[in-house]
C-alpha cells in the first residue's frame, strides 16, 4: 500500500465491498421489479384476452340465434299454406281462409317458442291486406309500416333493423307484384330486454359496460349499467378497427375491448375501469413496497456493518503498518476484538516486538561496528605519511622557505583536525572533497615532480549531499601507496565527479599500471566480502558504510582505468523525496 493515501484506500475498499454487494442484490431488485411489471402487464393482457374471448363467444352465440331465426323465416317463406293464402286468397272460401289463418298463427307461435330472443313474429301479406302475428293473431295490413319494413329489407348492409325503437329481422319472398314489391314479408321483432340480459350475463366486473353496435356504428342494445357517454367518447377517439385501447374519459381511465362479426356487421364493445384491472395486484403492490423498503434497509445495514466489522479494523491495521513504514517501531495495536482481526492484531504486535529485537541485535550492532571501524580508521595515523610530512617540513626549514613552511603546517593541521574530529559521522560532500584535495596538496609537496594530480571541480548541485566521513581521502591514499609512490615519472592521479539521473559517481583513477583484470575481479569479490580484512580494511569499511547509508546499488566498484591503472568508482544512489 505504499504511496496510496489513507482516503484512497478507504474509497477503494469500501467502494469495492459496496459494489460487490450491489452486484449481488441488484439482480434480485431488478427481478422483483420485472416480476411486478410482468404481473401487472400479464394481468391486464389476461383480462383483455378473457374479455375478448367472452365477446367472441357472445357473438358466436348471437350469430347462431340469428341464423336459426333466419332459417325459420326462410322455411316459413316456402310454406305452401302461406303461398296459397298470398296467391289464391280471393278464390278461397271463408272456411279455408279461417283454417289457413289459424294454421299460420299456430306456426308463428311455434317458431316464437324456439328462441328466447323472439318477442314477436309477423307475416305481412300485402296481396290480401293482412298481417298475421304470433301475439296479435290477424290484423289489418298497414301500408306505411310495410313500406318502412321493406326499405330496411332492401338495404343489404342492415341485418338487424331499428324500426320505431324496435329491433327486427326481415325477409321477403322472391315473388313480386307488378310494383316490384314482394307479396309478403316475414318479420321477427327481437326482445330487447332479453338481449340486454344476454349482455348482462357476460358482464362479470364491477362498473363494466357492454354494447352491441350494428352497421354505421348504430347502437343496437347495451348492458344494464353501460354508459352511452363513455361509448360515444370511445367512438370519437379511437378507430373502430382497434381491438384494445386504454383511454382517459372524464378523468378516469378505461380499458376497452371489442370483437366483430363481419358477416353481419355486428360489433360488441366492452369497457372496464382501469382500477378494476389493477385491483388483483393491490396486495402484490403492497408487498413490492415492503420489498423495496427491506432492500434499502438491507443496503444501509450491510454498508454500516461492513464498515464496522471489516473496513474499520482493516484501516486500523493499515494505519499501524504506515507508522511502521515511517520507522515507528513502538507501534502496538490496542484492541479488544476477537475472531480473525483479533488474531491478526496479536500477530502484528508480536511481529513488531520481534522486529525491534532483531534491529537491536543486528542493525544497531552493525551500526556500532561501523562506527567503531570509522573511529579506528580516524585514530590510525599512517606513520609513513607522518614521517614523510616531517621530512618535508625539515627540508623546507633547511631551505628557510618560511612561506611554504607556513602553508604546509596549516594544511597539515587542517588535515589532522578533520580526521581526528569525532563528533559527526556524516559530512556534506563539499567538506569531504575539501579534505581529499588538502591531502593531495600535501602529497604534492613531496611528489610534484613525479606525480601529477588532476582534481576535478565538484558540481555545485552536489555540494550539500550528506556522505559518510572519510570516503575519498583513504581511496586517494591507497592510490599513492600501491600504485603511484614507486612510479619513477609521469604518474597521474585523476579525481572526477559525475551525476547520472539519480546516481552520483566519485571516480578516483591512476596510471600505476600494476594491476590486471583478474586481480581487479578478485579485489571486487574481496571488497564485497565483509569478513575480508588485510590491506582492504579501509576500502571495505567505506563500501559498507556507503551501502548502509544509501542502500543496495551504492558502494565501491573497481575496474581497469583508461589511464592503465585502477579505477575506483564510488557510487551513491540518491533517493528522490
- The unreliable regions are 1-7
What percent of residues are in strands? Answer: 15-25%
| Highest CATH level, the class of the domain at 380-573 | Alpha Beta
The tally of helices reads: 15
User: Helices and strands: which structural class?
Assistant: alpha+beta
Characterize the quaternary organization of these chains.
single chain
User: What general outline do the C-alpha atoms trace?
Assistant: rod-shaped
Give the termini distance in whole angstroms. Answer: 18 Å
- Based on the coordinates given, report the CATH architecture of the domain at 380-573: 2-Layer Sandwich
Gyration radius (Cα, Å) is: 61 Å
What strand order characterises the main sheet? Answer: 3-2-1-6-5-4
What is the name of the CATH superfamily of the domain at 380-573?
A: Histidine kinase-like ATPase, C-terminal domain
List keywords for this structure.
577 residues; alpha+beta; Beta-Lactamase; Heat Shock Protein 90; HAMP_dom
Short characterization:
This protein has 577 residues and is of the alpha+beta class. The chain is built from 15 helices and 18 strands. α8 runs parallel beside α9, α10 packs antiparallel against α11 and α12 packs parallel to α13.
Amino acid at each position: 500500500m505504499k504511496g496510496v493515501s489513507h482516503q484512497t484506500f478507504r474509497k477503494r475498499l469500501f467502494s469495492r465491498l459496496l459494489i460487490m454487494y450491489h452486484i449481488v442484490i441488484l439482480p434480485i431488485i431488478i427481478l422483483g421489479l420485472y416480476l411486478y411489471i410482468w404481473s401487472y402487464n400479464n394481468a391486464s393482457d389476461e383480462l383483455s384476452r378473457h374479455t375478448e374471448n367472452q365477446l367472441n363467444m357472445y357473438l358466436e352465440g348471437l350469430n347462431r340465434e340469428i341464423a336459426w331465426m333466419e332459417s325459420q323465416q326462410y322455411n316459413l317463406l316456402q310454406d305452401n299454406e302461406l303461398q296459397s293464402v298470398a296467391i289464391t286468397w280471393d278464390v278461397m272460401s271463408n272456411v279455408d281462409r279461417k283454417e289457413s289463418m289459424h294454421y299460420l298463427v299456430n306456426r308463428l307461435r311455434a317458431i316464437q317458442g324456439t328462441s328466447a330472443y323472439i318477442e314477436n313474429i309477423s307475416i305481412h301479406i300485402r296481396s290480401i291486406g293482412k298481417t298475421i302475428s304470433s301475439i296479435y293473431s290477424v290484423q289489418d295490413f298497414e301500408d306505411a309500416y310495410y313500406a318502412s319494413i321493406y326499405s330496411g329489407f332492401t338495404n343489404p348492409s342492415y341485418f338487424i333493423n331499428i324500426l320505431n325503437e324496435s329491433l327486427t329481422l326481415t325477409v321477403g319472398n322472391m315473388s313480386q307484384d307488378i310494383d316490384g314489391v314482394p307479396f309478403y314479408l316475414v318479420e321477427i321483432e327481437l326482445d330487447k330486454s332479453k338481449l340486454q340480459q344476454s349482455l348482462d350475463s357476460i358482464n362479470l366486473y364491477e362498473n363494466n359496460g357492454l354494447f352491441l353496435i350494428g352497421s354505421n356504428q348504430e347502437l343496437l342494445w347495451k348492458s344494464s349499467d353501460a354508459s352511452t357517454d363513455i361509448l360515444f367518447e370511445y367512438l370519437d377517439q379511437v378507430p373502430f378497427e382497434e381491438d384494445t385501447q386504454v383511454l382517459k374519459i372524464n378523468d378516469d381511465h378505461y380499458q376497452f375491448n371489442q370483437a366483430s362479426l363481419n358477416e353481419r356487421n355486428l360489433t360488441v364493445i366492452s369497457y372496464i375501469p382501469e382500477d378494476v384491472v389493477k385491483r388483483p395486484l393491490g396486495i402484490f403492490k403492497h408487498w413490492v413496497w415492503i420489498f423495496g423498503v427491506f432492500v434499502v434497509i438491507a443496503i444501509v445495514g450491510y454498508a454500516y456493518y461492513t464498515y464496522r466489522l471489516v473496513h474499520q479494523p482493516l484501516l486500523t491495521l493499515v494505519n499501524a503498518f504506515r507508522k511502521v513504514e515511517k520507522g515507528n517501531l513502538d507501534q502496538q495495536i490496542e484492541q479488544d476484538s476477537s475472531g480473525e482481526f483479533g488474531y491478526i492484531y496479536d500477530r502484528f504486535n508480536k511481529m513488531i516486538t520481534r522486529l525491534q529485537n532483531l534491529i537491536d541485535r543486528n542493525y544497531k550492532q552493525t551500526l556500532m561496528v561501523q562506527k567503531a571501524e570509522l573511529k579506528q580508521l580516524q585514530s590510525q595515523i599512517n606513520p609513513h605519511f607522518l614521517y614523510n610530512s616531517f621530512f618535508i617540513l625539515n627540508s623546507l626549514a633547511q631551505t628557510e622557505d618560511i612561506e611554504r613552511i607556513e602553508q604546509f603546517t596549516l594544511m597539515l593541521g587542517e588535515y589532522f583536525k578533520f580526521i581526528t574530529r569525532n563528533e559527526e559521522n556524516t559530512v556534506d560532500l563539499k567538506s569531504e572533497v575539501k579534505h581529499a584535495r588538502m591531502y593531495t596538496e600535501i602529497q604534492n609537496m613531496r611528489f610534484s615532480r613525479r606525480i601529477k594530480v588532476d582534481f576535478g571541480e565538484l558540481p555545485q548541485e552536489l555540494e550539500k549531499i550528506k556522505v559518510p566521513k572519510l570516503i575519498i581521502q583513504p581511496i586517494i591514499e591507497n592510490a599513492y601507496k600501491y600504485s603511484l609512490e614507486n612510479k619513477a615519472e609521469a604518474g597521474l592521479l585523476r579525481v572526477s565527479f559525475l551525476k547520472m539521473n539519480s546516481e552520483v559517481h566519485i571516480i578516483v583513477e591512476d596510471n600505476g599500471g600494476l594491476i590486471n583484470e583478474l586481480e581487479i575481479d578478485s579485489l571486487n569479490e574481496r571488497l564485497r566480502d565483509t569478513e575480508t580484512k588485510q590491506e582492504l580494511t579501509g576500502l571495505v569499511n567505506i563500501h559498507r558504510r556507503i551501502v548502509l547509508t544509501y542502500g543496495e546499488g551504492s558502494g565501491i566498484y573497481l575496474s581497469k582505468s583508461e589511464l592503465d591503472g585502477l579505477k575506483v568508482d564510488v557510487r551513491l544512489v540518491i533517493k528522490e523525496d
